[in-house]
Design goal:
Two copies of one chain form a homodimer. Chain A is an alpha/beta fold and about 280 residues long. Helix content of chain A is about 45%, strand content about 15%. Chains A, B: GO terms for molecular function: orotidine-5'-phosphate decarboxylase activity.
Chain lengths: ~280, ~280
């Protein structure tokens, strides 16, 4: 999916919502356990209930990988039902030396090899340039590189500061920017510190940002938009638990839709406020 | 596998060799393509030809993942034939927020969930403490954290330096040290700059180091030992291409064994020089 297509989807759906598919067999409704593949059945129902309200889906690969071969089978089937008008994000946090990153790129981008072709993948930048660039060699695909995350340990290394007062996450954005463009690079920026987006936007004014941490993790959508939105929106705000686990009864898909509608409506207000729609 | 058991294996086999299983369908001998699972057939033959000469095997997960469900099946079967007296390393470079790292730990450490239980996994540290500690909660398992790698892009971020002259890889080792111990933590340190080990050993004198980059990538075993060996050996030196692709004919396993013998003999000299055996 190109940048232009993504922006079109945002304007059309009046939404920049990404739904996280961190599907945990221990948290899905009991009645689904009778299905042949409960994780896939859950995902399919969630997707059908939300696809007109969001512009991206983000399966968290760890949740599938934890079940080994069986889990990869659920991931494969889930990939097959992801709507083509939504950006598909393999949330995999991969990154290795060049020849190995190339293999990870094949895994998530080359259907003829792996059976799957996501639009994008999340990348950990610690190993530098050759760990990122193999993902940028695929036309129409995106590398979404970790910059400033929202988790407890995010500041252990990400705010390591050089003698000019520059923090590691700033160095990451500046260097990674030079390896690609706003058409094939995004950054992961956590929502838990809205004002943190000011500094991010100094380094990446035009790039899309994938933003976890709104809702369950405590980030405010309004703060994220105030400090992080750009003229093309430039944000994909992820929600996982608040949507997919809104209910663990037989009404789980309906309740997920209700929560997605609430977020879409808040997002519509922000897009109007910024005169994007 | 405990630290004591690993040291025993090193002394007994007079070797600290790790064989990398970066098995690429395009590089294995043609005659194996007739097998039902050529990657597994290749790995099994390499393991049988080398298991008395090495103390660790390191499947590079990307090479399996690139084939999707089928590749994970080859990985599962390969794990089943890894000898119990060798440290098994899932070279996966994983790392995510706490609840997700827990899922990755289940994938590689908990056989009851994923079907596999490696002794160790490689970890990317960018996301900090909660991305590493879930792997340390498993008794007898190891987290092998990236410190200073040997690839082209390694210095893009790993030598980012604070106002006290401390580099990021040093900060990583110091902080990660405080989350575990020499009994459940190792570090990845590339072999391409032998003298680089002096600084590593200032921060991690007692930990085992997993060392890629000897041979094909240009590192010298003698330099690594001179600067990196400690009283318990403290090194696992990986070789991949030099061993597993020593021949692409029907004699591939035999030639792999010959190359492994050469390395084992060089290692025996180093272990004797350091009075470890």
């Amino acid at each position: 999916m190109t940048r232009t297509e993504l922006i079109q989807q945002i304007k059309q759906k009046k939404s920049f919502l990404c739904v996280g598919l961190d599907t945990d067999i221990n948290r899905i409704p009991q009645h689904l356990l009778a299905e042949e593949d409960p994780i896939y059945a859950f995902n399919k129902a969630i997707i059908e209930a939300t696809e007109d309200l969001c512009v991206a889906y983000k399966p968290n690969i760890a949740f599938y990988e934890s079940y080994g071969v069986k889990g990869w089978n659920s991931l494969q089937k889930t990939w097959e039902v992801l709507p083509k008008n939504c950006l598909s994000i393999a949330d995999a946090k991969r990154g290795d030396i060049g020849n190995t990153s190339k293999m990870y790129a094949n895994a998530f981008f080359d259907q003829s090899i792996s059976g799957m072709s996501f639009d994008s993948i999340t990348i950990a930048p610690y190993m530098g340039k050759d760990s990122v660039t193999p993902f940028l060699d695929f036309e129409g695909k995106w590398a979404i590189v970790l910059a400033l995350t929202s988790n407890e340990g995010s500041l252990d290394f990400q705010n390591f500061t050089n003698s000019n007062g520059k923090q590691l996450f700033e160095e990451v954005i500046d260097k990674v920017n030079s390896w690609g463009s706003k058409d094939n690079l995004m950054y992961v920026v956590g929502a838990t510190r809205g004002e943190g987006f000011i500094k991010i936007r100094e380094h990446a004014p035009d790039h899309f940002l994938l933003v976890p941490g709104v809702g369950a993790q405590g980030g405010s959508l309004q703060d994220v938009c105030q400090y992080g939105m750009n003229k093309d929106c430039g944000l994909l705000v992820n929600s996982t638990r608040g949507i997919i686990y809104a209910s663990n009864g037989t009404d789980f898909a309906e309740k997920a839709r209700e929560e997605a509608i609430k977020l879409q409506q808040e997002m519509e207000i922000e897009l109007e406020r910024a005169a994007i729609i």
